[in-house]
């Protein structure tokens, strides 16, 4: 098997994840900073910058989704796990849209849908990495297989921390220190997301290189 | 087999070590069931809303149903496996959850029992998390979801269970999920949805696992129904205070699982049982029939028996005339038990007989059979064989031993004794092995007894082995008896020693009474 489709797909997924990292930095970090600055010294420029960053974040997320879809469809031709990742991406996207509408009607339903969405996003990553592990096994690259398994365990740990953070935020929602807790947890969440992305990006880059050399050797 | 490298060990399976689980779970379910009824009678209907009474009634009814399911698992002892234990574990936790739900309603509105109300509710929330986690484990086992993504999902859920349960204990000191006021009335807190987050996460994982599994549509439907029925119930009952029927809905789903999955398994087991019954008959027909074995010359009396540990066994015996004066006797023991051993047994038996009939000596036969069995033996099965060729005219017995138990001989006017002969290597493990022959001259009225290690290694409930002392003792008590009576006496003695412990190895014996030149 040549894995040409998998290589194309992984390249697209890699680009998609870069957009995701940028969206996280713009959407979470930059907007939080703007929000903090606005509380100290509010000006009209802050509104314009916030709008610009919001639109930029939206565009980056749309690009992330499009490249992610195309990447999964391509890679799925060579490895079944990417098909599952694709279906999970659709499910996560659908839940994200539903949660936007539900948020203003029912907080409980919103919290539950949001937690389900996080789990499905976790599965997108798990299925993708699992697919890469299977490809590494077929290419007889045990080093990449082992790295993949370690990555899965690390990603699981990060998702556990993120889930516990979500619980803690909800616990402290009504307390006097809610805002402070929310900021701290938000920063921890962002750090965890960035750790997840960089670990995943690192593995994707190595997988791309592995596939390129495998395809080159088998042509 | 006394070969140390390949000696048989008793394997205590994880399944055997969990046999205590079902009776304990059944006992606990009965206790909770009876306690629930008694507590309800003591409490009475005073101050109870009709919705609470309905919930309590549903809880008690469903507890009884779950207890009956537990009882039916005890009745079906043969069919018990790891799935059964996981299922019974699930049922018992459901019974516990139903009991707690009932308890919460019984103490509702009673100020003096406020502490019990809070405690019962905290445990109730925790047991819900444990129950959904156990269901995930059960579905994973039932649908055989052991690939990497599901292992990771299992790791994630098992780690998340701990902080989720710990957060629940906060309710002892702070009304996070609920509050119980001074009048003993329960009320949901604003952050009640935190208690549902682990449930939501686990349900999502379960749905993903079921959708992407390779199970049949029927199995997937049943698995999905377990979570769909309680969710539908939750939507219907969520805004009615007092209508707490989610665990009753869980019990309904369990009955559905039991009816579909277990019924399917029973059908499969019945079909397998029918096939095994046929295999047992085929194997029994392959062994020579003592009653129809009537060579022209006689001069001996012979009897043999093979009692398999399972429906089919790996031991075999054989006896046939090579020519008018020579009788071949074979006894063998294949490694392992059950169907794989029986298939290897049939191949070995045919090979040995065909090779003996070519006129080779016992050592040459074992060598030739060993070479043939070693070819394509990817499963690395092996067999121990004792082969003897008896010259009926002069009583010369030439034998060869391929890793088998030493035969027992009783000379005229003597006792049964173990005769130490040269042991060769087992057959089928390594090619190129040469075997040595032993030559004995049997005087008229000599008895030769060959057997497999199922006899001396039979164990009782205290894990003591039958041993050679008892074996020789029972033979010598009946030394004047004919072969058939001897075998019956040994068999009865082994059975008495075993004290109803299930037979774990095949037991095969053959006795020949050489009477002299016919």
How are the secondary structure elements laid out?
The complex is a heterodimer of chains A (219) and B (518).
Chain A: H1 4-40, H2 44-76, H3 81-102, H4 107-138, H5 142-171, H6 178-218
Helix pairs in contact in A: 1-2, 1-6, 2-3, 3-4, 4-5, 4-6, 5-6
Chain B: H1 14-17, H2 21-43, H3 50-75, H4 82-106, H5 114-142, H6 148-168, E1 178-180, E2 186-188, H7 197-211, H8 217-237, H9 246-286, E3 300-307, E4 315-321, E5 326-334, H10 338-356, H11 362-374, E6 383-391, E7 396-402, E8 408-410, E9 416-418, E10 437-441, E11 446-451, H12 467-477, H13 483-498, E12 507-514
Antiparallel strand pairs in B: 1-2, 3-12, 4-5, 5-6, 6-7, 7-10, 8-9, 8-11, 11-12
Helix pairs in contact in B: 2-3, 2-4, 3-4, 3-9, 4-5, 4-9, 5-6, 5-7, 6-7, 7-8, 8-9, 10-11
The structural domain count of chain B equals 2
Radius of gyration of chain B: 33 Å
Distance between the termini of chain B: 35 Å
Rg over C-alpha atoms of chain A, rounded to the nearest angstrom: 19 Å
Number of helices of chain A: 6
Largest sheet of chain B: 5 strands, antiparallel
The geometry of chain A reads as elongated
- On the 0 to 100 scale, the average pLDDT of chain B is 84
Q: Name the strands of the widest sheet of chain B in spatial order.
A: 3-12-11-8-9
How are helices and strands ordered from N to C of chain B? HHHHHHEEHHHEEEHHEEEEEEHHE
| Count of the separate structural domains of chain A | 1
Low-confidence stretches of chain B: 1-15
The shape of chain B is elongated
Major sheet characteristics of chain A: none
How would you describe the overall organization of this protein?
- The complex is a heterodimer of chains A (219) and B (518).
- Chain A is mostly helical.
- Chain A has one domain.
- Chain A contains six helices and no strands.
- The mean pLDDT of chain A is 85.
- Helices cover 51% and strands 14% of the residues of chain B.
- Classes of the chains: A mainly alpha (219), B alpha+beta (518).
């Amino acid at each position: 098997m040549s894995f040409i489709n998998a290589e194309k797909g992984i390249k697209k997924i890699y680009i998609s994840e870069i957009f995701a990292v940028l969206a996280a930095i713009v959407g979470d970090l930059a907007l939080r900073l703007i929000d903090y600055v606005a509380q100290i010294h509010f000006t009209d420029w802050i509104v314009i910058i916030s709008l610009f960053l919001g639109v930029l974040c939206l565009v980056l997320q749309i690009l992330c989704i499009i490249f992610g879809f195309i990447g999964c469809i391509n890679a799925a031709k060579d490895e079944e796990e990417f098909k599952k990742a694709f279906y999970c991406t659709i499910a996560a996207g659908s839940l994200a849209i539903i949660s936007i509408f539900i948020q203003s009607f029912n907080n409980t339903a919103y919290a539950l849908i949001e937690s389900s969405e996080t789990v499905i996003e976790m599965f997108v990553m798990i299925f993708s990495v699992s697919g890469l592990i299977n490809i590494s096994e077929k290419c007889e690259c045990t080093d990449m297989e082992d790295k993949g398994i370690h990555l899965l365990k690390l990603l699981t740990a990060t998702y556990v921390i993120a889930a516990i953070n979500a619980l803690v935020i909800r616990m402290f929602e009504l307390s006097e220190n809610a805002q402070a807790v929310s900021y701290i947890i938000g920063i921890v969440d962002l750090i965890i997301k960035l750790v997840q992305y960089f670990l995943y990006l690192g593995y994707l880059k190595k997988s791309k290189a592995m596939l390129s050399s495998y395809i080159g050797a088998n042509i | 087999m006394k070969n140390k490298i390949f000696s048989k060990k008793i394997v205590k399976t994880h399944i055997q070590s969990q046999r205590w689980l079902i009776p304990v779970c059944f006992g606990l379910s009965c206790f909770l069931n009876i306690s629930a009824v008694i507590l309800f009678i003591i409490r009475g209907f005073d101050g109870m809303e009709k919705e609470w009474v309905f919930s309590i009634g549903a809880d008690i009814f469903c507890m009884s149903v779950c207890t009956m399911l537990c009882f039916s698992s005890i009745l079906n002892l043969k069919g018990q496996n790891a799935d059964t234990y996981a299922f019974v574990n699930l049922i018992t936790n459901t019974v516990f959850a139903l009991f707690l739900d009932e308890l919460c309603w019984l103490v509702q509105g009673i100020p003096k029992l406020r502490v019990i109300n809070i405690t019962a509710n905290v445990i109730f929330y925790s047991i819900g998390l444990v129950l959904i986690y156990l269901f995930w484990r059960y579905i994973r086992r039932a649908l055989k979801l052991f690939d990497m993504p599901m292992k990771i999902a299992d790791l994630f859920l098992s780690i998340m269970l701990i902080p989720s349960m710990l957060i629940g204990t906060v309710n002892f000191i702070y009304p996070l999920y609920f509050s119980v006021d001074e009048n003993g009335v329960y009320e949901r807190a604003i952050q009640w949805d935190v208690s549902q987050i682990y449930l939501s996460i686990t349900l999502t994982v379960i749905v993903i696992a079921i959708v992407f599994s390779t199970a049949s549509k029927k199995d997937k439907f049943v698995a999905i129904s377990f979570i769909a029925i309680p969710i539908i119930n939750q939507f219907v009952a969520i805004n009615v205070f007092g209508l707490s029927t989610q665990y009753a809905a869980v019990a309904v789903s369990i009955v559905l699982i039991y009816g579909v999955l277990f019924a399917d398994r029973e059908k499969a087991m019945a079909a397998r049982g029918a096939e095994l019954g046929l295999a047992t008959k085929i194997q029994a027909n392959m062994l020579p029939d003592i009653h129809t074995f009537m060579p022209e010359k006689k001069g001996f009396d012979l009897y043999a028996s093979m009692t398999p540990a399972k429906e089919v066994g790996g031991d075999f015996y054989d006896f046939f005339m090579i020519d008018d004066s020579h009788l071949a006797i074979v006894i063998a023991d294949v490694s392992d038990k059950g169907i794989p051993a029986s298939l290897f047994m049939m191949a070995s038996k045919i090979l040995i007989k065909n090779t003996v009939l070519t006129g080779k000596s016992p050592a040459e036969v074992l060598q030739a059979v060993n070479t043939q069995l070693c070819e394509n033996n990817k499963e690395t099965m092996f067999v121990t064989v004792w082969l003897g060729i008896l010259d009926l005219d002069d009583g010369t017995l030439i034998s060869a031993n391929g890793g088998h138990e030493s035969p027992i001989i009783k000379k005229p006017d003597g006792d049964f004794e173990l005769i130490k002969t040269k042991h060769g290597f087992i057959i089928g493990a390594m090619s190129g092995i040469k075997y040595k022959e032993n030559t004995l001259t049997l005087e008229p009225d000599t008895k030769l007894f060959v057997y497999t290690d199922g006899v001396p290694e039979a164990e009782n409930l205290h894990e003591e082995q039958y041993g050679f002392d008892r074996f020789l003792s029972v033979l010598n008590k009946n030394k004047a008896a004919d072969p058939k009576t001897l075998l019956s006496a040994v068999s009865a003695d082994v059975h008495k020693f075993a004290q109803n412990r299930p037979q774990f190895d095949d037991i095969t014996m053959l006795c020949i009474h050489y009477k002299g030149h016919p």
